[in-house]
Write a structure and sequence with these properties.
Helix content: 10-25%
Number of strands: 14
CATH superfamily of the largest domain: Ribonuclease Z/Hydroxyacylglutathione hydrolase-like
Order of helices and strands: EEHEEEHEHEHHEEEEEHHEE
Shape: globular
Number of domains: 2
Length: about 230
């Protein structure tokens, strides 16, 4: 499922939807509403891996009326019972609250992330999951899939590196932030929270030589050899 953002604002007693031409543009619209009561819903990219012995879901996304995750799987000829393994870049609710739609699964997530306040607050999302805790700075997860620890957005955030015939695909969650230009330039605003941690994670992702980077909330980004590092 591709990423999507919705900004809802209350202006003059009316609820209006504010959208840009892209997810980054919609985030800009959200930040540009100082005189309105506003909030934002941001679906992440949900990634389905099908090259192994069984399908794997990375970041199942939001729980919604209508079970979007189940419907997206059905369009690909799969049902919830076909998915036994889920990988989480981190445990913010927009990335994992749809997990119960898959039933009993093994969930891979970094051990540091399990101890965060938002993970403890969202324990109900994990009730039917058997947690497989990742540890350390890097390591294997499944055949053809490994992780690197990329803290900054959260303490236990990770990126997943998937070997494909076209090169490594890096599923990086929210590490790259809402503006895709930041990762392209390998730079961040001076006041960005935990700026140095994010930049170190940027460098760690780049060092893996990915052919494609799939962020949490922007379209996939092909990486051209020799581009900014």
């Amino acid at each position: 499922m591709p990423t999507h953002r919705i900004v809802l604002a209350l202006m003059g007693g009316e609820v209006v939807e504010v959208r840009g031409a892209s997810t980054a543009g919609t985030f800009g619209a959200y930040r540009g509403l100082p005189d309105a009561v506003h909030g934002m819903i941001a679906w992440p990219n949900t990634v389905l891996l099908t090259g192994g012995p069984a399908p794997v879901v990375i970041d199942p996304g939001y729980m919604t009326q209508g079970d979007m995750l189940v419907g997206a799987l059905a369009e690909r000829g799969l049902g919830p019972d076909d998915v036994h393994t889920v990988l989480a870049t981190h445990l913010h609710s927009d990335h994992v609250s749809a997990l119960p739609q898959l039933g009993d699964v093994e969930l891979y997530v970094h051990e540091t992330e399990l101890e965060t306040a938002h993970a403890r607050a969202g324990r109900g999302f994990l009730d039917r999951a058997t947690v497989r805790a990742l540890s350390g700075a890097a390591g294997p997860v499944l055949p053809g899939v490994r992780f690197i620890h990329t803290p900054g957005h959260t303490d236990g955030h990770v990126a997943y590196l998937v070997d494909t015939g076209e090169g490594v695909v890096a599923v990086v969650g929210d590490t790259t932030g809402p503006d895709p230009a930041w990762f392209a330039r390998m730079e961040l605003p001076g006041d960005h929270p935990r700026r140095e941690e994010h930049l170190a994670s940027f460098r760690a992702i780049r060092a893996e030589g990915p052919a494609l980077v799939i962020p949490g909330h922007n379209p996939p980004m092909p990486i051209v050899e020799g581009s900014s590092r």
